[in-house]
Amino acid sequence: MVSKELEKSLIEAQIDIANSLKGIQGNLKLLNDHNILHSTKTEAEHNTIMERLKTLTDKYWWLILILIAAVLLMAGYKQVATLFIPGL
Hints:
Radius of gyration: 32 Å
Oligomer: single chain
Strand content: under 5%
Structural class: mainly alpha
Mean pLDDT: 87
Helix content: over 70%
Shape: elongated
Number of domains: 1
């Protein structure tokens, strides 16, 4: 048979474990909420960046083409072509 003292200490240990689990549950909820908030914020930032890039390419596509042409001229057409077409 289990003595009353041992039974009492087991009950106290179970109560401590239950209290610890409540604390862990609260921490996990807080972490989950933080992760959801971070995910939402990151997604909003990515959407903002994509909108700005789309605006940039819609308005200034001609400038991008001119810059690419300038780089090709400065680097030399043959050297750049060898990067894309090996054996030239």
